């Protein structure tokens, strides 16, 4: 009877620590996933938009230069005004995207290092505490990183405990 009770307590503790570790691992995976699939993806999309804007800007600049060197009749002047307007519009778009890319790359570099450092520290501390059997350190690691666990079924006792 005493041995079964001890075994049951050990199993409960293993289960609780396993759920705590799982919460830490899920938080780690979620944070890295956000970094890779959202932050980096957003930066890459902005870079692609910047490349497209650069091509459009160059094309309209070339058109404007060609029209500027041509004859100055009434039709050419209206085409020149339209080309100037298109050129300015695409130049503004290009310069805005260039500034956006610079900012996003700077933030990405800073955040990448911070997020990776924080997440690897969390992962290392949680794994170390779990395999050392140190429940307090494992829970302290989660508190340190502000991770709130919602353990399923924590509100109600197991069917064995109800007996």
Automatic annotation (TrEMBL):
Residues 80-111 form a coiled coil. GO terms for cellular component: trans-Golgi network membrane. Residues 1-143 form the AH domain. One of its GO terms (molecular function) is phospholipid binding. Keywords: Coiled coil. GO terms for biological process: intracellular protein transport; regulation of Arp2/3 complex-mediated actin nucleation. SMART domains: Arfaptin. Transmembrane segments: none annotated. This is ARFP2 protein. The gene is Arfip2.
């Amino acid at each position: 009877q005493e041995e079964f009770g001890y075994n049951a307590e050990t199993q409960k503790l293993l289960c609780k620590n396993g759920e705590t570790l799982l919460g830490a691992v899920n938080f780690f995976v979620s944070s890295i996933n956000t970094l890779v699939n959202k932050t980096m993806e957003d930066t890459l999309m902005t870079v692609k938009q910047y490349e497209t804007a650069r091509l459009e800007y160059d094309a309209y600049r070339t058109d404007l230069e060609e029209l500027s060197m041509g004859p100055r009749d009434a039709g050419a002047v209206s085409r020149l005004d339209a080309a100037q307007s298109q050129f300015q519009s695409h130049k503004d778009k290009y310069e805005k995207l260039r500034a956006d890319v610079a900012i996003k790359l700077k933030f990405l570099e800073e955040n990448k290092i911070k997020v990776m450092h924080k997440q690897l520290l969390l992962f290392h501390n949680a794994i170390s505490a779990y395999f050392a059997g140190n429940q307090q350190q494992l829970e302290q690691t989660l508190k340190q990183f502000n991770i709130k666990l919602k353990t399923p079924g924590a509100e109600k006792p197991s069917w064995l405990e109800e007996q």
